[in-house]
Amino acid sequence: MASLPRKLELFYDVLSPYSWLGFEVLCRYQHIWNIDLHLCPSLIGGIMKNSGNKPPALLPQKGKYMFVDLQHLRKFYQVPIQVPKDFFSVILEKGSLTAMRFLTAVKQENPEMLERVSRELWMRVWSRDEDITEPQSILAAAEKAGLSKEQAKSLLEKCSTDKVKSSLRETTEAACNYGAFGLPITVVHVDNKSHMLFGSDRMELLAHLLGEQWQGPVPSPVKGKL
Amino acid sequence: MASLPRKLELFYDVLSPYSWLGFEVLCRYQHIWNIDLHLCPSLIGGIMKNSGNKPPALLPQKGKYMFVDLQHLRKFYQVPIQVPKDFFSVILEKGSLTAMRFLTAVKQENPEMLERVSRELWMRVWSRAAEKAGLSKEQAKSLLEKCSTDKVKSSLRETTEAACNYGAFGLPITVVHVDNKSHMLFGSDRMELLAHLLGEQWQGPVPSPVKGKL
After folding, report:
1. Is A61 part of a structural domain of the chain?
2. Are A37 and A221 in contact (CB under 8 A)?
């Protein structure tokens, strides 16, 4: 392959269902397209605050629509996404601060595990309606992803360090500086330009900007590329 | 073709740029997919009021994003969409009441012209190029007069209410009736999902016309 992989930054928060959908699509395509996927754990709360935006579900018609939209996309994207029973409490009250700090620590110490641990956290909150705020919840997700008990405990301790807190803050600021008012955002660096794309529904446009082929949200893996 | 065409209702307002994108995609696919496309002129202002929503561009970051997004989609969808110079004045102050009443009158009196006249109005608001839609001066004058009749005003009101009852909080919405169910899809970026629900093939926003179908 003659050309360098194009850098893609996915800014996401496990609290955000559409972030999960965008994440899974890009994780599939990173083995097919000539891209270098950087996963960037961020805080959607910080982005909303910075932009003056509000969670869409706070508007009743948008909330109702989102629930139905996610049911369609569950099948279409083949991601086992399920709205938690007490949606508002999970999203608006409990939040994701510790979870996203944990993922920041994983990115710093065990970056090769970031994809799997992120997925396990989404599976807890957005598939099995399980908690992601308590220490034991996060340790359980980490172990399910393949980290040892010791590694998981060590990463959890790092969550209260300045190194991790400021890194999460900086990543969230970076998303804001790219113009984010929500998540997910995908920033693609191509032809000496950067483009910020909002949402899990701009992936076909992303393919177009990369000059790659769009095969829908569930592509066939390309033999020989893995 | 053994099966009946599936009914699709597109609720739109020419004030809405994403409505134009959704409109063009569906107008292309109506000649390819087994669908029966119904164009439903609506008032986005009424939908916003009913749902308590606000135009996204009122949030600065969303407005900035929309301008850039439309530049990308202009090329990707091959629709000559251009943000008007005085965007806020056009969208928030001038509005689209007469235009949408006019389209309602066109739908009642000259339904075969609705697609072309809708496009012409979008071209005027959302593009620099404007072409004639093909109505004669007399037809246009007659339709304009009908805009102030109860028949047209109430029809536009009813169509807008129908969109609200489907759960709209903005436009465009596409309502697809398939397998004895109705699904409301919001936005111009749910067309690939629409294809999936219809069991049809998605060829992107600019499909090759199927020979023998026109």
Report:
1. yes
2. no
